[in-house]
């Protein structure tokens, strides 16, 4: 049975790729991912903020209170050598490349025009096979119009893409007026892959403390519906590879994502909740299902239920909305 | 041979040689020697090898006694072994020093000579410690400068191997150990050439080994012990020549020739000073000056003090000498004279009785003391000694440098006399601890010392407080070697890096006429001139100074540097001082920025470069013609209302003029009045909390957590408000416990507040209309200083809440009790002091406190002022710090004494029953003193008793009168940090726990030696980085509580006030109520954790939530009721240990240094937490 797929021009042995998460922070865990069958790994993100501020912050805490009191002129042993976020990240990428056989995809997360962008090149030099660019932008300035926001995405993407030779994927949020159009423009700008979608963590309110709470909830399979709809829509209309992310938990999710047209499926919450071992279980389940249902390859199913391939393309459009609402059984 | 020039301090110079010439290093941190151990550890951690190509092992022991034991064992087993110590640490090594010397074992101990604790502790330099070891059999060799420290470290290493006599190599604490100086660094080849490997092998051959067994360390009897003791004579006789031969060999290699006694001065000198240590450098400088004036003076620098070679000593003295002054940097009360003086007399006397004596007539010899505790020793004092020798009847047993107006020992000296070295530039910098001034100056010295031909010297004076500190940097640069081992007294350049310091110090007192003055100001140039105090402007004009101003804080803010003005002020210095050509200097600053920050990313480098460039644009010269008369007056240092002693003595010390305090103003036995911090209005906070009564729920948490007792609560009769200042805030007291018409106020002492913000953080009451505000909010201090000063004074004079009515079992109620520990010098946001203060509130009016040396003894007892306070009845904690190691025993002694007094008083009561009255006696004897009412009533009875006793007038009645107060229950507290409780004092602590005595032990657990700069203790957590655990502590924190739980009759509690204040309060109340030993282990967040101190309560919560710091109480009283006495007060882990740990730099930094290792340790740490949680759970369910 042929589970191989192609993503960002890379030939992958199967469509299961762990997405950027703290799990890839240690070599050991990435090795376990490889052993469990992951076909590539997106390494945790290097954040613009880390690049800009971490050195400052570390310097602050290492030197806070020093040279003030005769008995304690400092409080920590002076490290001979240390790596702050960016250096640590590059070192990690290069270590991963030395230690694992699967493609290693770096991830860079930023928004402003600034020094962090040069890290794309450095990640390439450290040996990454590809780069995933995550532009996480909350348009909190209500005077800023949508066109401007879109321009930021395109500007940042172009700036990064022009500095590297390795393929660059861009991870998008679903919050565009016309997500399809946005995806197409990025595709035209040379995106090698579109990763759909970034999950925006929405803050909660703590009623006891009257405070805003940062809130990170793991995804569920239901979260896959949104990427599915848009991958189904984009399939066959863009040159870029398509990756489904958010809501991949089971082999069924993988199958659905592939059938709407994904080249790879990215898994994260499932591994955080139930361990890295879930990769091999999902692959096994996938094989069993394909065997049973007589699929010989991933290619056979890829895009088979995309918008252009389904009998009723309207199922992915507004018409389906009414149907869905009307199908809800009122239980009270 | 080309040798590298380096600018390092004495500690580094000693450690540099010691690390390369030893195999085992066993140490224990003690100021000022700690950096030697830390550097050795750091070098070994990066695999730096010794001259034999192997990495020395560095181990931290539990005490200096332990270090000495380990050194002894290692030496006996054949390794080249060393240690570093000072002061009390050296005293603890004495027993082993006798053993090491008695067994003729080669080693060199490197000692930063420091004062001993007598009437007071002092961390500063003198020879009291070293002189206490002169009888041990160790050779004593003294270095006078940083260069000599490196040289003598090597010379003594060679000499010890050859002579088999162990050496104590010493140099002056701080003055030499911390002075940064440009020196020539010895090469590895130099060191190699000085060490004779055959002697190393002989040392190994003498080692204990089962392959060639023997017995050493026998017990000997009267028949042979004496003879045995005399066997070593020949070794001691041979030793001086061996040292001289090592010095000669060293001279061959380096060109620097030393002698056992180095003479400096006129060949035909008639007056001679004999001394050792850094002061000899100053004496040499003064001799040069006096010789230039035609005076016939000379100086002998004693290098090898033990074994004392009379032959070499006599050989060093010119025959022409008629008058000799011997200067000792120590004090031996009751002796005929100090040690060097006595030795000189003995040596000369012995020589006089020889057939060909040096002198036909014995010269006149006087002895004197100087420089105790780093007291300044300057050319004018040296000159005064030489002048004294000219007199017909010079003063013997004199002192120099102080005003002894009691026994008149002191010599007068000319306060205005200074020696100006031609071509030398001196500079003074006044800065804040937090602004990076010292770091920048060290960097400037490096630039000048290592990048140019100039010599450079830096010495730094720090604050004795830990918050709102100021620093003074003393720098010298010049073409000639610098011999001035004293503070800068006439400066070419003075930089004041914080405007407010103009009011604190007489900054321009020591500037030369026509000198350059640089002021960092928060104002524009024009506004600055209207804000500078009159006195300062007059000095600028009168001395015709080149005056420059810069708004460094704005430059820092605009260039992203935050509040650190270091780079900015350093740039100004180089731009205007003329020490180096400006452009060259700026280029060098940038190079050094690149060197320092290069590895940490371009962003910091760019930011600093930008700061340098922006500095030059914002630096302005003020022409003298622009200066107009000013009306700004410097306020008096203390209020007129302060007590006489504060006004006359302590205020002088506060002003930085403590050197002027005469002997008569010092207490004879180290006793100082309580409650004096209240007069030292430091005004160090930029922002302070402001109370918004509209939202206040009167929980009292703010007052509880305040580390400095600067937020206070009172409930009082609202009628008293009629005299309140207009801006005084109040609300109606909430709760059934209050009478109607009771007013409630939370008042901030804004002049004492350090601005930590913990109160705002803990405040649970949100402003419901705008949730970013609470019932307490930080606001600018300056704009409310005047009104709040008045408000606090009014508040302070309101009556205290009646202790009997306060429900002390609640946080709210407990915070009505007056804190009797206030406004200490602890760090801003200190995690220890809230506990200390709580003790003072709950039990302070009847507490006796034994305080181990450490942070708590420093913020609790460092002059000038004392935070331990008293209430309006004159009652308050009686406090004392004995030592570091003996605190538990010290406190137990107090308990024994208090109990004895009580027992005897009860006996006397019974004997006097008829005279005093049966009812009163029975009342006293049977009194229930379990609560505040009981205590109050007993005090009333004792007052009646005293009235009665006064009238009886018998021996017994007078006896009882002297101890009657002990009939009121006393509360004995034993406090200290984890360094004391887990390590150095554990043996005593364990004994006290086992003793059954009614003492309360409070362990302020910061998990490192905080006071000496963050060295690992046994309390340090697994995976945390600390000094001596640079790659993360590989073993778990010692569970002191569990060890205490082994004793069934001990009250044990583990608390974290920031996580659960109620549990904490309960623990304190129960511990004190328990009639036996109690121990409370209190989580104390600390600056040494590398955390945001304002948010430290979150760290405390996380520590508890992860179960790393499980909260519990074990009360033996509960067991008497047949219940499980162990109560687990915190719940099952809510978060993983790593979530807590990685909030703190001490854990996080390892992930930056060695991520995989950090991960391994983190896993082990989680296992340790899980395991200990299981143990506690089991204890709770058994």
Model description:
The complex is a heterodimer of chains A (332) and B (1182). Chain A is an alpha/beta fold and 332 residues long. Chain A is built from twelve helices and twelve strands. Chain A has a single domain (5-326), classed as Aldolase class I (TIM Barrel). Helix content of chain A is 39%, strand content 15%. In chain A, the strands form three sheets. Chain A has an eight-stranded parallel sheet with strand order 3-12-11-8-7-6-5-4. Chain A has a two-stranded antiparallel sheet with strand order 1-2. Chain A has a two-stranded antiparallel ribbon with strand order 9-10. In chain A, helix 7 packs parallel to helix 8 (251-260) and helix 8 (251-260) packs across helix 10 (278-292). With 1182 residues, chain B is an alpha/beta fold. In chain B, a hairpin with a 5-residue loop joins strand 32 and strand 33 (1015-1016). Chain B starts with a strand and ends with a helix. Chain B has 43 helices and 37 strands. Chains A and B meet through helix 2 and helix 3 of A and helix 2, helix 15, helix 22, helix 42 and helix 43 of B.
Please report the two chains with the greatest interface, counting residues with C-beta closer than 8 angstroms to the partner's C-beta.
Answer: A-B, 44 and 65 residues
Quaternary state, please? heterodimer
Cα(first) to Cα(last) distance of chain B is 74 Å
Radius of gyration of chain A: 22 Å
Poorly predicted spans of chain B: none
**Annotation field: number of helices of chain A:** 12
Strand content of chain A: 15-25%
List how many beta strands of chain A DSSP finds. Answer: 12
At the first level of CATH, the class of chain A is Alpha Beta
- The helical percent of chain B reads 25-40%
Shape of chain A: globular
The main β sheet of chain A shows up as: 8 strands, parallel
Q: Write out the CATH superfamily name of chain A.
A: Aldolase class I
Total helical elements of chain B: 43
Structural class of chain A: alpha/beta
How are the strands of the biggest sheet of chain A laid out side by side?
Answer: 3-12-11-8-7-6-5-4
- The CATH architecture designation of the largest domain in chain B is 3-Layer(aba) Sandwich
Share of β-strand residues of chain B? 15-25%
The general outline of chain B is globular
Fourth-level CATH superfamily of the largest domain in chain B: Thiamin diphosphate (ThDP)-binding fold, Pyr/PP domains
DSSP strand count of chain B: 37
């Amino acid at each position: 049975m042929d589970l191989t797929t192609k993503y960002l021009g890379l030939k992958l042995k199967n469509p299961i790729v762990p997405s950027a998460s703290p799990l890839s922070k240690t070599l050991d865990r990435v090795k376990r991912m490889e052993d469990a069958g992951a076909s590539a790994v997106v390494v945790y993100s290097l954040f613009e903020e880390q690049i800009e501020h971490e050195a400052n912050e570390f310097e602050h805490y290492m030197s806070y209170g020093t040279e003030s009191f005769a008995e304690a002129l400092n409080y920590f042993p002076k490290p001979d050598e240390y790596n702050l976020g960016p250096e640590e990240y590059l070192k990690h990428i290069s270590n991963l490349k030395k230690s694992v056989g699967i493609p290693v995809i770096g991830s860079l997360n930023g928004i402003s025009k600034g020094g962090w962008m040069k890290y794309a090149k450095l990640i390439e030099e450290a040996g990454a096979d590809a780069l995933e660019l995550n532009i996480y932008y909350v348009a909190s300035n209500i005077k800023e119009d949508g066109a401007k926001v879109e321009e930021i995405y395109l500007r940042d993407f172009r700036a990064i893409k022009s500095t590297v030779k390795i393929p660059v994927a861009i991870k998008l949020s679903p919050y565009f007026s016309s997500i399809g159009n946005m995806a197409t423009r990025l595709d035209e700008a040379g995106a090698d892959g579109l990763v759909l979608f970034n999950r925006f963590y929405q803050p909660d309110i703590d009623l006891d403390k009257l405070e805003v709470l940062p809130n990170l909830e793991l995804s569920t399979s239901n979260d896959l519906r949104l990427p599915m709809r848009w991958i189904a829509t984009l399939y066959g209309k863009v040159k870029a590879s398509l990756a489904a992310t958010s809501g991949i938990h089971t082999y069924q999710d993988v199958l659905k994502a592939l059938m709407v047209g994904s080249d790879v499926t990215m898994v994260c919450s499932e591994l955080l909740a139930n361990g890295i071992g879930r990769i091999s279980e999902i692959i096994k389940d996938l094989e069993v299902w394909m065997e049973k249902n007589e699929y010989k390859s991933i290619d056979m199913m890829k895009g088979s239920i995309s918008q252009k391939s389904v009998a009723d393309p309207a199922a992915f459009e507004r018409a389906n909305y009414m149907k869905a609402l009307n199908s809800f059984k009122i239980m009270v | 041979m080309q040798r590298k020039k380096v600018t390092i301090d004495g500690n580094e110079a000693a450690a540099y040689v010691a690390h390369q010439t030893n195999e085992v290093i066993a140490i224990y941190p003690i100021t000022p020697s700690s950096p030697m151990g830390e550097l050795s550890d750091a070098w070994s951690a990066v695999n730096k090898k010794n001259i034999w190509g192997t990495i020395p092992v560095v181990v931290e022991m539990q005490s200096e006694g332990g270090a000495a034991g380990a050194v002894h064992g290692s030496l006996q087993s054949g390794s080249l072994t060393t240690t570093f110590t000072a002061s009390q640490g050296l005293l603890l090594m004495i027993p082993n020093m006798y053993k090491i010397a008695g067994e003729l074992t080669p080693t060199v101990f490197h000692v930063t000579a420091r004062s001993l604790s007598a009437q007071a502790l002092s961390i500063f330099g003198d020879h009291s410690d070293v002189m206490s070891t002169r009888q041990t059999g160790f050779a004593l060799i003294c270095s006078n400068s940083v260069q000599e420290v490196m040289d003598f470290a090597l010379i003594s290493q060679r000499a010890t191997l050859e002579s088999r006599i162990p050496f104590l190599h010493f140099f002056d604490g701080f003055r030499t150990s911390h002075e940064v100086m440009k020196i020539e660094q010895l090469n590895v080849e130099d060191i190699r050439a000085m060490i004779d490997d055959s002697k190393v092998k002989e040392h190994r051959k003498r080692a204990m080994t089962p392959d060639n067994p023997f017995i050493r360390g026998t017990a000997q009897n009267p028949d042979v012990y004496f003879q045995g003791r005399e066997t070593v004579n020949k070794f001691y006789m041979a030793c001086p020549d061996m040292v001289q031969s090592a010095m000669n060999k060293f001279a061959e290699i380096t060109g620097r020739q030393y002698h056992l006694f180095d003479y400096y001065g006129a060949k035909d000198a008639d007056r001679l000073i004999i001394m050792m240590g850094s002061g000899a450098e100053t004496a040499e400088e003064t001799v040069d000056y006096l010789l230039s004036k035609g005076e016939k003076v000379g100086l002998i620098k004693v290098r090898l003090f033990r074994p004392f070679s009379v032959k070499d000593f006599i050989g060093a003295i010119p025959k022409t000498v008629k008058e000799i002054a011997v200067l000792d940097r120590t004090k031996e009360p009751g002796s005929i004279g100090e040690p060097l003086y006595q030795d000189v007399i003995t040596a000369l006397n012995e020589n006089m009785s020889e057939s060909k004596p040096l002198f036909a007539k014995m010269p006149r010899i006087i002895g004197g003391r100087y420089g105790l505790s780093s007291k300044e020793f300057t050319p004018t004092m040296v000159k005064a000694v030489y002048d004294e020798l000219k007199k017909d009847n010079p003063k013997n047993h004199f002192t120099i440098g102080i005003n002894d107006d009691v026994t008149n020992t002191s010599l007068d000296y000319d306060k205005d006399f200074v020696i100006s070295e031609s071509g030398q530039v001196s500079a003074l910098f006044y800065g804040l601890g937090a602004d990076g001034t010292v770091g920048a100056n060290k960097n400037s010295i490096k630039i000048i010392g290592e990048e140019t031909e100039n010599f450079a010297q830096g010495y730094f004076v720090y604050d004795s407080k830990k918050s709102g500190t100021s620093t003074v940097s003393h720098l010298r640069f010049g073409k000639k070697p610098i011999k001035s081992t004293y503070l800068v007294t006439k400066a070419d350049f003075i930089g004041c890096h914080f405007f407010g310091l103009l009011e604190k110090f007489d900054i321009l007192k020591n500037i030369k006429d026509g000198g350059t003055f640089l002021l960092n100001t928060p104002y524009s140039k024009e506004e600055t001139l209207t804000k500078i105090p009159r006195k300062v402007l007059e000095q600028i004009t009168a001395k015709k100074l080149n005056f420059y101003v810069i708004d460094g804080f704005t430059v820092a803010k605009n260039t992203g540097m935050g509040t650190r003005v270091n780079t900015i002020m350093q740039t100004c210095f180089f731009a205007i001082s003329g020490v180096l050509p400006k452009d060259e200097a700026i280029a060098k600053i940038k190079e050094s920025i690149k060197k320092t920050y290069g590895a940490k990313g371009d962003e910091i480098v760019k930011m600093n470069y930008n700061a340098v460039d922006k500095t030059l644009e914002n630096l302005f010269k003020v022409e003298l013609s622009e200066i107009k008369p000013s009306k700004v007056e410097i306020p008096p240092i203390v209020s007129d209302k302060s007590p006489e002693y504060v006004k006359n003595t302590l205020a002088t010390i506060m002003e930085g003029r403590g050197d002027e305090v005469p002997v008569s103003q010092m207490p004879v036995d180290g006793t100082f009045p309580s409650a004096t911090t209240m007069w030292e209005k430091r005004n160090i906070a930029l922002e302070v909390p402001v109370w918004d009564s509209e939202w206040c729920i009167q929980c009292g948490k703010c007052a509880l957590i305040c580390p400095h007792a600067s937020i206070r609560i009172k409930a009082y009769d609202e009628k008293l408000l009629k005299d309140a200042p207009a801006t005084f805030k109040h609300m109606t007291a909430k709760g059934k416990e209050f009478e109607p018409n009771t007013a409630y106020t939370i008042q901030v002492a804004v002049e004492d507040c350090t601005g930590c913000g913990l109160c705002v953080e803990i405040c649970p009451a949100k402003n419901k209309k705008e949730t970013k505000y609470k019932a307490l909010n930080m606001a600018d201090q300056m704009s409310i200083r005047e009104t709040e000063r008045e408000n606090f004074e009014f508040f302070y004079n309101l009556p205290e809440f009646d202790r009997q009515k306060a429900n002390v079992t609640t946080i709210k109620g407990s915070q009505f009790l007056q804190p009797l520990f206030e406004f200490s010098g602890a760090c801003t946001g200190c995690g220890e002091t809230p506990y200390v203060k709580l003790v003072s509130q709950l039990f302070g009016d009847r507490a006796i406190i034994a305080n181990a040396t450490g942070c708590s003894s420093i913020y609790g007892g460092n002059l000038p002022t004392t935070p331990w306070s008293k209430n309006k009845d004159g009652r308050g904690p009686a406090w004392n710090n004995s030592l570091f190691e003996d605190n538990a025993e010290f406190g137990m002694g107090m308990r024994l004494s208090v109990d004895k007094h009580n027992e005897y008083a009860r006996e006397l009561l019974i004997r006097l029953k008829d005279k005093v009255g049966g009812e009163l006696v029975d009342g006293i004897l049977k009194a229930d003193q379990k609560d505040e009412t009981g205590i109050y009533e007993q005090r009333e009875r004792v007052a009646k008793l005293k009235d009665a006793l006064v009238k009886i007038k018998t021996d017994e009645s007078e006896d009882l009168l002297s101890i009657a107060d002990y009939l009121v229950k006393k509360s004995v507290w034993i406090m200290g940090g984890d360094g004391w409780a887990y390590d150095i004092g554990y043996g005593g602590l364990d004994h006290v726990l086992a003793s059954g005595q009614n003492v309360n032990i409070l362990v302020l657990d910061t998990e490192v030696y905080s006071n000496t700069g963050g060295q690992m203790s046994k309390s340090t957590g697994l995976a945390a980085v600390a000094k001596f655990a640079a790659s993360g502590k590989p073993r778990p924190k010692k569970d002191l509580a569990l060890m205490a739980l082994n004793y069934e009759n001990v009250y044990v509690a583990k608390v974290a006030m920031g996580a659960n204040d109620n549990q904490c309060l309960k623990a304190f109340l129960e511990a004190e109520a328990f009639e036996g030993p109690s121990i409370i282990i209190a989580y104390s967040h600390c600056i040494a954790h590398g955390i945001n101190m304002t948010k430290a309560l979150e760290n405390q919560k996380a520590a508890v939530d992860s179960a790393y710091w499980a909260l519990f109480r074990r009360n033996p009283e509960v067991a008497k009721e047949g219940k499980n006495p162990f109560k687990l007060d915190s719940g099952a882990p809510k978060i993983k240990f790593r979530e807590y740990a990685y909030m703190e730099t001490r854990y996080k930094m390892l992930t930056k240094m060695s991520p995989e290792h950090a991960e391994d340790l983190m896993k082990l740490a989680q296992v340790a937490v899980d395991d200990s949680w299981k143990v506690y759970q089991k204890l709770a369910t058994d």
